[in-house]
């Protein structure tokens, strides 16, 4: 893990919160949203400061990976590692991003987005 | 509402779908302004940090005093329904960060390339990029105060965009105008999807 005396200095710093891990346990699209239950927030109290903050953020309303990274002031890659851990550990529910396949599924989504925009 | 079943995070009542539209264009063309005009939150910034182990664009380890490169993207959010959220992502201004663009367009509904008529050549790189990807895109002319006005056809010619790519005029500060741009993106995505289906092409994935 890490190179404590790395002459490149803060090269590894963005990933300090993940203890140097840069590969997430699962891929999470930047716009996929995550939700934490109240029980999950309680559980996250013991999972470290960063994970707890993320759980608290995702309890009142669903937040995308991009929002989690922005509000936590973490680089996207580091946030993705933490969030992927939390999904695997049952602290966050990962919701689906837009369907990429299937004509009907994709068309239904486009129609819903279109009507949502028109109502703005 | 069934509270008893929400013991664990996995037991949410409803699956939430999120979609995204990408807003591209040169530096200072008004991408963040456009996002802010319709977003329910102040546009946020997320940063991707590229290290020497990254995408081979910069070998950061060989540049003294510049260990990492940070690529910033602004984005906004529109909650359309309890189970539907639309995100708007502005691309990083620097077009050399293609690796980040690839991530941004994966699974996107479509894109709008924002153009400033005073710096029309700034749009070349984003247009080239989208032409080489299977992502429906439209061109939106941001009509800055005092900028020279051109006929849409003149701009179309200057940018060499094909006739099937929609071109719209907009004011990135105006909510209704931005709404119209986004509606054009989605309508174009629908036409593209129908055309693909008609030709029997497999739907492109990300």
Number of helices of chain A: 5
CATH class of chain B: Alpha Beta
Number of domains of chain B: 1
Number of strands of chain B: 7
Q: Overall pLDDT of chain B, averaged?
A: 84
Low-confidence runs of chain B:
1-12, 52-63
Distance between the termini of chain B: 35 Å
Please outline the major beta sheet of chain B.
7 strands, mixed
> What structural category do the secondary elements of chain A indicate?
mainly alpha
Strand order of the largest sheet of chain B: 2-3-4-1-5-6-7
Order of helices and strands of chain B: EHEEEHEHEHEH
Number of helices of chain B: 5
Largest interface: A-B, 55 and 59 residues
DSSP strand tally of chain A: 3
Q: What's the structural domain tally of chain A? A: 1
Strand order of the largest sheet of chain A: 2-1-3
Please give a structural write-up.
With 120 residues, chain A is mainly alpha-helical. Chain A has one domain (12-118). Chain A contains five helices and three strands, in the order βααβααβα. Chain A has helices at 38-44, 49-57, 65-72, 76-88, 103-118; strands spanning 33-35, 63-64, 93-94. Chain A has a three-stranded antiparallel beta sheet. The longest helix of chain A has 16 residues, at 103-118. Chain A is globular. Chain B has helices spanning 31-38, 98-105, 124-131, 152-159, 175-199, and strands at 17-25, 44-50, 69-81, 84-90, 110-116, 137-142, 167-170. Chain B has one domain (20-199): P-loop containing nucleotide triphosphate hydrolases (Rossmann fold). Residues 1-12 and 52-63 of chain B have low confidence and may be disordered. Chain B has 206 residues and is of the alpha/beta class. In chain B, helix 1 packs across helix 5. The longest helix of chain B has 25 residues, at 175-199. Chain B is 28% helix and 26% strand. Chain B contains five helices and seven strands, in the order βαβββαβαβαβα. The chains are: A mainly alpha (120), B alpha/beta (206). The interface between A and B is large, with 55 and 59 residues.
């Amino acid at each position: 893990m890490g190179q404590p005396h790395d002459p490149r200095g803060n090269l590894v710093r963005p990933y300090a919160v993940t203890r140097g891990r840069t590969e997430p346990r699962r891929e999470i699209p930047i716009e996929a949203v995550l939700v934490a239950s109240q029980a999950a927030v309680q559980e996250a109290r013991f999972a470290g400061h960063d994970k707890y903050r993320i759980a608290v953020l995702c309890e009142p309303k669903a937040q995308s990976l991009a929002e989690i990274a922005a509000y936590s002031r973490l680089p996207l890659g580091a946030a993705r590692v933490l969030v992927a851990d939390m999904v695997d550990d049952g602290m966050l529910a990962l919701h689906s991003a837009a369907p990429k396949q299937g004509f009907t599924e994709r068309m239904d989504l486009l129609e819903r987005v279109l009507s949502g925009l028109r109502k703005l | 509402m069934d509270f008893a079943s929400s013991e664990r995070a996995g037991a949410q009542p409803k699956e939430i779908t999120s979609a995204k539209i990408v807003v591209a264009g040169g530096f200072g063309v008004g991408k963040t302004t456009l996002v802010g005009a319709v977003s329910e939150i102040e546009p946020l910034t997320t940063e991707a940090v590229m290290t020497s182990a990254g995408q081979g664009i910069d070998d950061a380890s060989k540049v003294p005093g510049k260990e990492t490169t940070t690529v910033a993207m602004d984005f906004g959010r529109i909650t359309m329904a309890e189970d539907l959220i639309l995100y708007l992502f502005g691309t990083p201004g620097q077009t050399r960060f293609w690796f980040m663009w690839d991530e941004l367009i994966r699974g996107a509904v479509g894109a709008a390339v924002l153009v400033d008529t005073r710096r029309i050549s700034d749009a070349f790189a984003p247009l080239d990029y989208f032409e080489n990807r299977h992502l429906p895109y439209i061109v939106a002319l941001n009509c800055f105060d005092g900028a020279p006005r051109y006929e849409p056809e003149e701009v179309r010619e200057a940018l060499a965009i094909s006739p099937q790519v929609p071109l719209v005029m907009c004011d990135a500060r105006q909510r209704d105008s931005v709404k119209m741009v986004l509606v054009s993106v989605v309508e174009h995505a629908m036409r593209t999807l129908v055309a693909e289906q008609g030709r029997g092409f497999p739907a492109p994935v990300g």
